[in-house]
Amino acid sequence: MLLLECNDLSFSYHTHTGEIPVIKSVSFRIQKGEFVSIVGPSGCGKSTLLGLLTGILSPEEGEIKIHYKQEGTQSFYGYMLQQDHLLEWYDIWDNVCLGPKINHCLDTDCKEYLHTLLTRYQLDAFAHKKPSQLSGGMRQRAALIRTLAMKPELLYLDEPFSALDYQNRLNAADDIGKIIQKEGKTAVLVTHDIGEAISLSSRVLVLSRRPSTIIKEFVLPFQNTGLSSLEIRNLPDFSTYFNLIWKELNTT
Amino acid sequence: MSQNQLLFLQAEKKRKLLIRISRALVLLGFLIIWELSARCGLIDVFFYSCPTRIARCFLEMTKENQLFMHIGVSLYETILSFFIIMLGSVLVASLLWRFQTLSSVVEPVFVLLNSLPKSALAPLIIVWLGTGIRTIVIAGISVAIFGCIINLYTCFKNTDPEKQKLIRILGGKKRHIFFMVVLPAARETILSNMKVNIGLALVGVMIGEFLAARQGLGYLIIYASQVFKLDWLIMCILILCFIAVCLYSLIQMLERRLGAKA
Fold first, then answer.
1. ipTM greater than cut 0.90
2. A12 to chain B nearest CA, in Å?
């Protein structure tokens, strides 16, 4: 089922020194239940593309069409930023409640849903702890629960593991991948880490250097194998796709 | 608790006690040297007074209830000025943060007013508003408010843009960003400004009382200097020191309480 469609998106930044074209004629479609990764070289405009998709920025050309929104969805999309940005002056419970509080929908059902998520992802014992008392991986899980609180149809993940060290990064990516799969969410991950993209996604879109456009699309066979992202990394096909995407990125 | 941890805590406790005793001894030593110098004729008591004369003067004035009235007036004016400085600064800085164009227009005005010597403004305020508490409180406010507004506005402006973005993504408006991110993130800056401003409010109130009061410690200091009652004058200065320390400690207590809650 088609969830979202982007047609010919273009965007430039305007500064006193001139115009910087960042996104040029980007078109793609997202189906419900997919995990799509967008990879590209650093500074190519991946976060800008997410800015356009979330409505924080407005495209100068092109359009974004939402085709499906399930009943009971409080917000069409949820957005996980590059860092967890948990607010240190609130405890974990208040942090995960931020979205519902802002949107005045923190009712009993919502609280129950959040308690379930915290329990399911081993954070219930930390609900009244400050973010600084949690490990990097736990903070990422809390940030994801904050994103899931509004029961979004589509999750945008903007390099959410980039601030973690390598070991925590692998574990957090594995955790987050499992959670998204378990909750049956559609996700768009933006990353420059090819391994992360392959191990988590069903499809990878490769962006060129600035002004970015989609130069290649890879459909991956791993998502429905029931393997974790860590296990996917050990499959022989993993390195085949890694090399193919690597080659694409280096020829742009 | 392990034996080593216990020893460490005991050593820490001992060190803190030693610092307290040393501080008390330094003060006591200063008072003794001052008293002895006066009694031995090394300093002229008419100009420099001595602790016993000041203590006698203090007791005499408290008997007449005059001194506490003056202290009360100065304290009231200082605390009132302080609250207006803090509330006014937070309010103005938040308006400047909310309306960026307005801030671009008025920021140079605040920078100018902040760099102006406030004692130069005091005579003008007296001409405009006459003498009395209102003039003195305005003098107290004028000393600190402009600097505080600039500090708080700079702090609000520099709040992590990613955290602001997070609230916007979650559907928040400017008011949510302000109350959920900008204001809590500025807590340390607000507290450090409170520490500075409680002292500055006292300075401003003294400037006002020097020029436009019939009561208060500033008035008493000016009166004492005019009639050469230097015991009074030095006593008032010591009381001011005591008040400044007490007010600062109150803010520190508040900081610790908030720190424990955070």
1. no
2. 20
